[in-house]
Design brief:
By secondary structure, the protein is α+β, with helices and mostly antiparallel strands. It is 37% helix and 23% strand. It has helices at 4-16, 98-101, 115-132, 155-169, 176-186, 237-247, 251-270, 274-293, 304-318, 342-352, and strands at residues 23-35, 40-42, 47-48, 52-68, 105-108, 111-112, 138-144, 198-202, 211-214, 221-227, 324-327, 333-338, 357-361, 368-371, 374-375. β2 and β3 form a beta hairpin. α4 crosses α5 (176-186) and α9 crosses α10. The longest helix has 20 residues, at 251-270. The radius of gyration is 21 Å and the shape is globular. The structure holds ligand DP6. Ligand DP6 binds at residues 33, 36-38, 46, 52, 155, 187-189, 237-238, 328-329.
Length: 377
């Protein structure tokens, strides 16, 4: 959480930069799923097959500034607007959203983007433009403060920050839930990064019912990231999900099991039982990988060092350290542990896996949005 001083510093910084009037910034942290999202019931709206649970982490963040350029702003008062998919409370103007998307520009870490990456960002901007009644193109610039290169720059922080900055820059004043739904349209996992700490994404059945919400907890959790490779994955998670659903004979049983795993994880959290939580977290991730490995052709993200890392975690657990592995669409291993034991676990892993970078991440804050008046929430 921000201290009062650092919050004031950030406010000052953004005031000096002249944010406001069509321009806003947002900062979001990435999240790691403890019970995974893998597979969509609706590809266009990004409605998942299963509900999921995650931990938002500090130190893996994206800061994004969105500026709508030109004078294509609508006349609806901001307070009366709502976000796409929610029944409209006004009869205000609507603009053909696609009118501007070809003219958006995007830089990520200073590098100009085009093609699929820009298209995905423009789709989220289109939703915001349609709702705000504007047709101005946008300049988007995004910086990732990931401590060790690209491999962990998840789309979760990127699309949460984009949703926050774009809605604010367009003059919308969405609720947290509406922001979660908007972030979801960019990348499913991003809907969870709107909140800090432990977060549940309710799968829902349509746009309005599929959103994330914070989960009460008093547990002292941390994630130790074992960085095995930061090379771009050979199959995107989006494509791998489609292939798993279409061809893996194990997928439906993972879906069935995942609902039970989520109940088990929430029960463990409500009683503060880390052993019980860790066991189900590890099993759920391994089940997801089993399903994708069984797809045709197989999707295998693992490298030899991945197996060594999984073995090291198991060995350390055998020695009494709390440590359970989870993995996403890549070869890196993330280890759930207690905040108290995280540094010791990281030291042990560093000596057992000298080729890997090992970093401790503690729970991080939810999305923060800035405009000319500083931090909004
Ligand atoms: C393995 O959110 O990146 O990290 O919705 O297609 O953009 P899209 O997928 P994305 O998938 C994340 C998958 C995962 C598990 C998780 O974060 O729950």
């Amino acid at each position: 959480m921000d201290s009062r001083t650092s919050r004031q510093d950030e406010v000052g910084k953004h005031e000096e930069s002249g944010l406001g009037r069509g321009r806003a910034s947002a900062l979001a942290n990435a999240n790691i799923a403890l019970i995974k999202y893998w597979g969509k019931a609706d590809e266009a709206l990004i409605i998942p097959r299963t509900s999921s649970l995650s931990l938002t982490l500090d130190g893996l963040s994206t800061e994004t500034t969105v500026e709508f350029v030109g004078n294509g702003r609508g006349a609806m008062p901001p307070a009366q607007r709502d976000l796409p998919g929610v029944p409209d409370r006004t009869s205000g103007p609507r603009v053909a959203a696609s009118a501007s998307s070809g003219r958006d520009s995007l830089t990520i870490d200073g590098v100009q983007q085009s093609g699929k990456v820009l298209d995905r960002v423009s789709k989220v901007l289109d939703l915001v433009r349609a709702q705000a009644g504007i047709n101005a193109p946008a300049h988007v610039s995004s910086t990732n403060t990931v401590p060790y290169g690209a491999g962990l720059a998840s789309s979760s922080s990127a699309f949460a920050a984009l949703a926050g900055a774009a809605a604010q820059a367009a003059g919308l004043r969405p609720s947290r839930r509406e922001l979660s739904r908007l972030a979801r349209r960019g990348s499913g996992s991003a809907c969870r990064s709107v909140y800090g700490g432990l977060v549940k994404w309710n799968a829902g059945h349509d746009d309005a019912s599929s959103y994330a919400e914070p989960v009460d907890n008093s547990m002292d959790l941390a994630i130790v990231v074992i960085l095995i490779s930061n090379r771009e994955k050979h199959v995107s998670s989006r494509d791998a999900m489609v292939r798993t659903i279409a061809t893996s004979p194990l997928y439906e049983s993972w879906v069935q099991q995942s609902g039970k795993d989520l109940d088990e994880a929430l029960a463990a959290i409500s009683t503060g039982d880390l052993e019980r939580l860790g066991a189900v977290v590890e099993a759920n991730a391994m089940g997801m990988h089993a399903a994708m490995i069984a797809s045709r052709p197989p999707t295998l993200y693992w490298l030899p060092e991945t197996i060594r890392a999984l073995g090291a975690v198991e060995e350390l657990r055998g020695q009494g350290l709390p440590a359970w592995s989870t993995m996403d669409a890549g070869p890196n291993v993330k280890v759930l542990t207690s905040g108290r034991d995280a540094e010791r676990l990281a030291d042990e892993l560093r000596s057992m896996l000298p080729a890997c970078r090992v970093q401790v991440h503690r729970p991080g804050a939810g999305l923060r949005v800035f405009d000319e008046s500083g931090v909004r929430e």
